[in-house]
Amino acid sequence: MARWRPPQPRSSPHITAEGHAALEAELQGLWTRRADVTRHLSAAAAEGDRSENAEYIYRKKELREIDRRIRYLQKRIP
């Protein structure tokens, strides 16, 4: 049986100008990093068997994490 916890207060959806600039900078950095990871991913995929290729598996995971953060930031930044 789960323990009862009081509801948490919702955070404000408003973003300050400094916060907006920081999110924009992070988004641009992620797009740059994504291009680099994609380049490494295609090099790892060219090495052969992908099921046992640790570099390929790691780069796919990293790309998923970057894409997830990009989607979040694009929804968050008006």
Automatic annotation (TrEMBL):
Transcription elongation factor GreA/GreB N-terminal domain span: 15-77
InterPro entries: TF_GreA/GreB_CS, Tscrpt_elong_fac_GreA/B_fam, Tscrpt_elong_fac_GreA/B_N, Tscrpt_elong_fac_GreA/B_N_sf
Similarity comment: family membership: Belongs to the GreA/GreB family.
Record organism: Ectothiorhodospira haloalkaliphila
Keywords: DNA-binding, Elongation factor, Protein biosynthesis, Transcription, Transcription regulation
Biological process according to GO: DNA-templated transcription elongation; regulation of DNA-templated transcription elongation
Protein name, per record: Transcription elongation factor GreA
Top-rank taxon: Bacteria
GO function terms (MF aspect): DNA binding; RNA polymerase binding; translation elongation factor activity
